[in-house]
Structure formats: structure tokens, C-alpha cells
Design brief:
alpha/beta, seven-stranded mixed sheet, 23 helices, 37% helix, binds adenosine-5'-diphosphate, binds magnesium ion
């Protein structure tokens, strides 16, 4: 039985309704905090009442007029008069009002025929000599069901206070931290947040809530940083191999690449475990930077593992890197979930003995039987796709290897300091020369025929098209995965905005929709012309089929590759310069940017068509997609992404632990995050002494 049912007035029905809103335990309940408050501690003179502005005031009833089904009450307070109107339960209400009586009235004034009027305000008679004082009313996020079951603001406040009163919570923070940071005990803080004594104290209370949320994360990051200084090895900068590999490149490094290689090499050569994050927009050429960093370790006899989040990407890396490394006499192995058993056994034993020094793989590299003789560098590509657990598992492979994360999702500098505060940051700002920005166009349904005709002509002329759909199709067709994420600031988990009422939310559910699917597009293309050569990749295909389609596409044997977001990261087919994205509203802008980054890798003009589905878009959606179409600057897009989704869902934050932040906004509360971090740094250091 749910703990919640121990609370007064909470029966099975309400337990169920609360559970649907993500409130399952007493802890969930006391942390289901008001998202706003109505200040009813200060009285507003009637003369100063304003339409739409909540007010509370004491007054005297001057007259009562009854009309059909309607009661009008005129009240006065010496500064003016106000009209109160009641439509429902008039017979009953009539007895609650009497001329000359003192009353406390509260609500939001509206207007009727240019007259200020309050419809069904809250009211309370004031007795002789009674001292009247207002209160701060909490406004909780509610669901429609909560509202219907009368689980509303007053009730939530009541049961939250009851829970805080009746059950003991062990404070999540240590006494010393609470003292140093002058924090209230957890239960006291929560009690005040549910029932503040004044509106003025709320900002300070909220701040404490954020500090409580940030501190454990900051302490962990600082401890990790300190630990890294004590472990790991120094890898001297390679004299020979870096030059040899560099000479084998078909291009010269950009200034940014050369600088990143030099900086990373310097960190590798100093003692301690190096952990860095290499950020660079899609197509900026991060892989070669990582390879040159790998040279330092390889030359000194260490091993290097390059980890990719998908099989497709691991295969692709292996395909391009193996011949390149072979020229310098280095063999590169490939280990994925798909590697046949005998081959896998050889690989595993070669890694353990040190016979193999370079391996590319997927999360298969994490499995327990994979051991390295001397892992010196782990390169983690598209790091936002890996969970923190997997990252730790890799570090645990012994010897405290240096770790280089690579990410194509640029993170605003302020955020990088927090989210990846334990890592050294490197940014590739320039792109290889000669790249034209991808031209992005919105295509409404009536222009679809023109788009098909254009693509067909291009395709027959040797250009190739990535065609991205949000789902595979069929009953279980899953929707473009991360698109379902919504901004979460100031709302409980799994709820989204539902109505005009600022406090009403609905459980986060996606309606079934008629989305373009892999099958539909294939049929449409074939109907347009049987000459199209179309391939398919999606997550549910067996690996060899995926690989076959991708290879055929890479070799230019297909005009079109219809794909789900499996191609989102890393796929590098420079001659494919066209992309269509169906229902772009189903993707976040950062994800769209990743997808679009599959094109524009050659020197020809690339195009990206955003196909607008045949349904209404809310204006915000339109703005978001149009804003994306206007820029190719990854940093700008990352900022747009933040604005539209809130920092809680920022790529990479989940893995850092910062994704769990409910109350702190990493951008808005940047100063506070830094303050907490400085405290954590001092604290962790002094603990060591
Ligand atoms: P990303 O940063 O997205 O991982 P890649 O490392 O896959 O980018 O590089 C994208 C493409 O650019 C590859 O085809 C790569 O060979 C090429 N490339 C990388 N550096 C340069 C350069 N300095 N000049 C020209 N092409 C480059
Ligand atoms: Mg890459």
C-alpha cells in the first residue's frame, strides 16, 4: 500500500491520481512544490484594484441585490466601492452576506461593461474584534484529474504539511555543510516552501532549495577531479608517430585542429589522469584530432580504445581508420555486439596480452571479459550518447587511462563549466576550408511535389539523399526518441502544460499521429518514379542489413537512404549532399542540427528540406523550426535548444548527473552554481589535508 494513503483524506482514488502525476511516495509529495504563490498578505485598497491582478481587502457590505439566478453585492472600504457577482448557489450564498457586515474578500477582478467586477470571489466574514491577516497561497502544478478530485492547492498544502509533521526525514545533507552554508534543516525548508510566512522570504527559500540540489553534485565532481591528480600516467608527446600519421592525411589540419592536438598532448604528458572534452560542430574534424592524441600513447607502448555509440558509427570509424593506421604499422581491431565469437575471442586475448594496441568498438568494449594490458587512452565519440555508468565502467578497466570525450553538441561556455566542470574543455571553432553552409528550406505540403522533382533530378545526376523519418512505421513504430522530451522547469516530472489555467498540467503523453514512416516514404518514392534506388536503415533491422544498406549508399549504389535517427550521429558520407527531414517538429533543434550535419561534408552546395506535415503547428513550433532553418551555427542552435527545452534536458546533462536538476536552471542560476562549486572545492581540499 502506498505510504500516501496514511495521509488524511487520501484514499485509493487519490493515491492513483497522485501517482499519475508522478507522486508516489511521501518524499515525492513534499517535493511537489508550489511553482508560484499568490501574495495575500498585503491588503489592496478598493481604489487600487486592477483587472487581472489578484487582491485581498477588508471591506463592508453596503448593499445586496438579487436578480434571477444572480446576486450582486456592493462593498466599500472608504477608498471606493466594488461589485461582487455570484451566479451559482445564490440561495445558499444569500444568507452569508448581510448589509453592514465586515468581510474579507479575495480574488482576481475582471471587468463587465467597463465596470470592475469580481465574479465568485473568496469571502470570509470578519467577526467583531477579530484580527485579520492574509497569507501566501501556494499554487501547485495540478493535473486535470487532481483538480476534478479536489486535490487542489489547499489540499496539497495540507497533506504536504501533514507529511512533514508526521514522518521524520533524514536530512540529505551533512550537518557541517548545512552549518557552513547557513541552510535550514530540510524539513523546515520544505515546510516554509509549502507555507511561507511572507512573500519576501520565498526567493531565499528557493535559493536554499537550489543549493541543496547542487551541492552533492559539486562535491562529487570536485572529489573526482582531485582523485585524478593522484592516478594515471604521463604519456610523453610522440616524436615520430604523430608526424608520420599527420603526413598520411589527405589534407592539412585546420589551425583549430593543430591547436587542440598540441593542447591535448600537453595534458597527456603531464602526470595524473587527463580527462578532456573536445567539442566541435558536426563535420569539424574531431576524429583526426583524437588520432593524433592516440599517437602519443601508441608510441609509448600503451593501448587506445575508441568507443562509438552505435554499431554503424563504430564500423565507419574502423573502416576509415584501419587503413590509415596500418600505414604506420598499427593494427586496428573492431569489437561490437556483432563480432563473431571466434573473432571476438582472438580480439579479447590480443587486448589482454597487448598484441593489439588499437581497438574501435561499441559498448561491447565495456563487457567484463574485455581487459587491456595497458589502456592509456579511451576516446569516447559522441559522448552525450553514453551514460555515466558506462563511462565509469570504462575507467574501471584499470590503469586510469586518460579519457577524451568528443561531442558535436556545443555547450555554451557557462554551462560547460558546470556540467563538465571536471573536464578540460577544447573547442574546435573552425571548419575545414571550402565547406559551404547547408541551405535549409521549409517545405509546405503543397510544395512537396516540387521538392520530389528537384531531388529526383539531383539524384539521377549523382547526388544522394538522406531521408529522415520520425518513426519506422507499423503499430510499434517508435517515435524519434528524444523528441518526446519537454521543458521541465517548474513542473513536476511527466507533466506538461494543458490549458489556459496556469496551474493545470496533463500527464506527458503523445497522441497517436499519422507520421511519415519508412514504409510510407518508400512507397511514395516508388510511386513517383520506379527509377529511384532506395535503401533503408532503422534501429530494428539486423546489423548486417543496416551495414549493407549504408555501404551501398556510401558506394553510390543508392539514390536515397530512408532512415530513422539511427543515422543521427557520426555517419560520414561526404557525397550525400541532400537531406529531407519529415515532421521536423518531432525533433529537438540540437537533434535536427546533428541530422543536418550528415550533409555539407563535401565541397558542393548541400540542401536540407524540412517537410512540414499536414497539420497545424503552434506558433512556438513554427518559430523553433524556422529559427533552426536560419542558422547553421551550432552554438546558436545549442542556445535555442536550451531556451526551448530548459537546461534539464540538455544533451550531456543527464550523464553528468546535472540532468536530475529540478529546481536549478544552469543558465539563470549560473552565479549560484559557481558559488556552490567554489565551496565544494574548498571543502574537498580541506578534507584531504
Ligand atoms: P566530426 O567532428 O563531425 O566527427 P569528422 O572527424 O568525421 O567530423 O570529419 C568530417 C570530415 O572532414 C571527414 O570526412 C574528415 O576526413 C574531413 N576532415 C577532417 N579534417 C579536415 C581538414 N583539416 N581538411 C579537410 N577535411 C577534413
Ligand atoms: Mg564524429
Amino acid at each position: 500500500m502506498s505510504d500516501l494513503s496514511r495521509l488524511t483524506g487520501v484514499g485509493p482514488k487519490r493515491v492513483k491520481i497522485l501517482a499519475e502525476a508522478g507522486i508516489n511516495t511521501l518524499r515525492d509529495l513534499v517535493y511537489h512544490l508550489p511553482r508560484r504563490y499568490i501574495d495575500r498578505t498585503k491588503f489592496t485598497p478598493i481604489a487600487e484594484l486592477a483587472v487581472g491582478k489578484d487582491a485581498i481587502f477588508p471591506c463592508t457590505v453596503r448593499s445586496i441585490a438579487m436578480a434571477q439566478m444572480r446576486m450582486m453585492v456592493t462593498v466599500e472600504d472608504g477608498t471606493g466601492t466594488a461589485e461582487l457577482v455570484f451566479f451559482n448557489g445564490v440561495q445558499f450564498l444569500r444568507n452569508r452576506f448581510a448589509e453592514g457586515q465586515r468581510m474579507l474578500i479575495a480574488g482576481v477582478p475582471g471587468s463587465f461593461r467597463d465596470q470592475l467586477q469580481m465574479v465568485h470571489p473568496e469571502f470570509q466574514a470578519i467577526k467583531e474584534g477579530q484580527e485579520i491577516k492574509g497569507e501566501v497561497l501556494p499554487r501547485y502544478p495540478l493535473t486535470m484529474d487532481m483538480s476534478e478530485a479536489h486535490v487542489e492547492h489547499k489540499f496539497l498544502q495540507k497533506i504536504a504539511l501533514e507529511a512533514l509533521q508526521g514522518f521524520s526525514f533524514s536530512d540529505a545533507l551533512a550537518e557541517t555543510h548545512r552549518r557552513d552554508l547557513a541552510l535550514l534543516p530540510e524539513a523546515d525548508l520544505l515546510r516554509s516552501l509549502h507555507k511561507p510566512a511572507s512573500a519576501e522570504e520565498i526567493p531565499a527559500l528557493r535559493r536554499q532549495l537550489k543549493v541543496r540540489e547542487l551541492l552533492p553534485l559539486s562535491l562529487r565532481l570536485e572529489a573526482v577531479k582531485l582523485e585524478r591528480r593522484k592516478v594515471g600516467s604521463a604519456w610523453p608527446v610522440s616524436e615520430k608517430l604523430q608526424n608520420q600519421l599527420g603526413a598520411g592525411l589527405p589534407f592539412t589540419l585546420t589551425a583549430g585542429q593543430a591547436e587542440a592536438v598540441a593542447e591535448i598532448s600537453a595534458f597527456q604528458s603531464s602526470p595524473g589522469q587527463f580527462c578532456g572534452l573536445l567539442m566541435g560542430d558536426v563535420g569539424s574534424g574531431k576524429t583526426v584530432v583524437a588520432m593524433l592524441a592516440a599517437a602519443n600513447v601508441l608510441e609509448a607502448g600503451g593501448q587506445v580504445a575508441l568507443m562509438a555509440p552505435t554499431e554503424i558509427l563504430a564500423n565507419q570509424h574502423h573502416e576509415t581508420l584501419a587503413p590509415f593506421l596500418a600505414k604506420a604499422g598499427i593494427r586496428a581491431g573492431l569489437l561490437t555486439g556483432d563480432t563473431p565469437k571466434p573473432e571476438r575471442e582472438t580480439l579479447v586475448s590480443d587486448l589482454a596480452s597487448g598484441a593489439l594496441n588499437f581497438v574501435v568498438g561499441t559498448h561491447a568494449l565495456y563487457s567484463g571479459d574485455v581487459k587491456f594490458k595497458r589502456l592509456g587512452l579511451a576516446i569516447i565519440d559522441e559522448q552525450h550518447r553514453f551514460g555515466v555508468q558506462q563511462r565509469l565502467a570504462l575507467s574501471a578497466k584499470g590503469g586510469h587511462p586518460d579519457i577524451l570525450y568528443m561531442s558535436a553538441t556545443p555547450i555554451p561556455r557557462t554551462l560547460a563549466q558546470t556540467v563538465f566542470g571536471d573536464l578540460e574543455n577544447f573547442v574546435l571553432k573552425d571548419k575545414p576550408a571550402g565547406r559551404l553552409p547547408v541551405k535549409t528550406r521549409l517545405v509546405p505540403p503543397e510544395k512537396r511535389k516540387d521538392m520530389l522533382a528537384f531531388l529526383f533530378k539531383e539524384a539521377l545526376g549523382g547526388n544522394q539523399v538522406f531521408w529522415v523519418v520520425p518513426q519506422i512505421g507499423g503499430k510499434d513504430g517508435s517515435i524519434g526518441d528524444r523528441s518526446a522530451k519537454e521543458p521541465k522547469s517548474a513542473r513536476p516530472a511527466r507533466l506538461e502544460k494543458a490549458s489556459e489555467d496556469p496551474d493545470i498540467f496533463v500527464p506527458l503523453k503523445r497522441p497517436e499521429e499519422d507520421l511519415a514512416s519508412v514504409g510510407k516514404i518508400q512507397a511514395e518514392l516508388t510511386a513517383f518514379s520506379p527509377e529511384w534506388k532506395v535503401g533503408i536503415v532503422h534501429g530494428k533491422l539486423p546489423a548486417e542489413k543496416k551495414e549493407a544498406a549504408l555501404n551501398a549508399f556510401r558506394k553510390g549504389e543508392l539514390h536515397v537512404l530512408v532512415a530513422t535517427t539511427v543515422i543521427e550521429v557520426g555517419v560520414d558520407v561526404p557525397q550525400a549532399n541532400l537531406m529531407v527531414i519529415e515532421s521536423p517538429d518531432r525533433f529537438g533543434v540540437a537533434q535536427l542540427h546533428q541530422l543536418r550535419g550528415r550533409t555539407g561534408r563535401g565541397t558542393a552546395q548541400a540542401w536540407c528540406f524540412l517537410s512540414i506535415p499536414n497539420r497545424e503547428w503552434p506558433i512556438e513550433t513554427y518559430d523553433r523550426i524556422a529559427g533552426f532553418a536560419e542558422t547553421t551555427d551550432g552554438f546558436k542552435i545549442a542556445e535555442m535548444d536550451l531556451k526551448s527545452r530548459g537546461t534539464g534536458n540538455l544533451e550531456g546533462t543527464d550523464q553528468s548527473g546535472y540532468g536530475g536538476l529540478r529546481f536549478t536552471d544552469l543558465i539563470e542560476d549560473f552565479e549560484l552554481t559557481q558559488e556552490v562549486r567554489r565551496y565544494a572545492e574548498r571543502d574537498v581540499k580541506s578534507a584531504v589535508k
